[in-house]
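User: I'm new to structure prediction. If I give you an amino acid sequence, what do you actually give back? Let's try with this one:
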Amino acid sequence: MALAAVAPFDPEERTVAMRKRIASTDQRLLGLLTAADRPGIDDAMSKLGRAADHGLLWIAVAAALGARRNKWTRRAALRGLAGLAIASTAANVFAKQLVGRTRPDLPLNSAARLARSPRTTSFPSGHAASAAAFATGVALEVPALAVPVGGLAAAVGLSRVVSRVHYPSDVLAGFALGTAAGLVTLRWWPQRPGEPAAAARPRRPAPASPDGSGLVLIVNASAGSASAELADSLSDALPAAEIVVATADDDLESLFSKAATRARILGVAGGDGSIRLAAGIAADAGLPLLVLPAGTFNHFAADLGVESVEDALAALRDGDSVLVDVATADGAAFLNTASTGVYVDLVKAREKLEPTVGKWPAMLLGLVGVLRTSRPVDLMVNGRRRKVWLLFAGNCRYEPSGAAPAYRPDLADGNLDVRLVDGSQPLARTRLIVAVLLGTLGRCRVYQTWSAASVRVASPAGGPVPLCLDGEATEMKRAITLVKRPKKLLVYRRRPGE
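Assistant: Good question. You get back a string of structure tokens that encode the predicted 3D arrangement of the chain. For your 498 residues, that looks like this:
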């Protein structure tokens, strides 16, 4: 029996057929969504779409999130904007040029019509891509905002169809592209775990003090959200505590030293620099430390799991506490990191600009200047002469390994996490920037990492070694040793899950 001839498979014909089906479905859905005359709804949708032009709507939302003195909402704003930048570039610079799809016919209803027709091609929707990217970035950091911000993003996408500047498939493709862009930010900026870092439980916990008895608390009013108003509220919450308000004119280290002589518990409300000073003095005096996060970044408090003043006071009330490592640079304590090289230049540039433009803009402007003008420094590292862009020593291991350090899984592991950017390699700065942008820092030959019990750093020229301890610039001796203190520090922290 002769077999019937089977038509050969033609991928091109199948692609054409699929495009026709998509186009037909697009036209049908577009007609359903724009057929009715709804002046009020159409006008509102048109205004929403215009508000999202050039990402202005999302920049405004990010500003509102950043204005809240909450670390997680600030992170959400930054991650959302990073995803938006990636999605907008991918959609408007690359995807639209590749596809070149024409836009739908303009609506007859003047309420739905945009004042100015877009000049770019239709596929994918850049508005939808930006909206989805921002919403994804925000949801990664603050899941509670997924519904309101995601709903606003969906409304922006719908507005582009109602205004007849995009087909439904343009918007769906934009949503897919934007979601991917938001998730891609995790490659450069890992998501911080919801759980605090591990830490050793003491044999004898810190004293419980519900009313603040025995506590001397220094409030650094020049740091972050610390203020005289915060001191007043703490006085109400802790009537038996001694609250001292420090201003920018005070010698903070001297205040902590004097407080330690009369305290049973030493407390600090401020940023990482203030906490660093308090930790060194508390460790010397054998006192437990109460940390109230009131700075701009609050890196140590975040790893510790003390997210708010209320968290700290709850731990003080119950005596919940842990033991953490304290590292030193020739006796000067640090809890997070010690860094030298271009990071010192960055911090100095930030401190110079900060009074005028604020800390976050100063950091960004300082980074641009440092990358443009700075040069690697000559150092002796563990007896070997090195040309160094950056030397970073973390108090305990930072994650992720092989990438930019983001958080610590353990605050009492006994090790220094050392990371060095080698300035002797050809095009070291360019290779480093490319590796950061591609998310391949762990495989970049100019980026070296190792774990150590101590690190010796010296200046071959004989001058002091410029150093940053927990984000604040200082100058040390010609040769310094970074090492852990043999005795851990007792710090208040609520038990996980409480």
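You can read the tokens as a compact description of the fold. Here is one thing that stands out. The mean pLDDT is 84.
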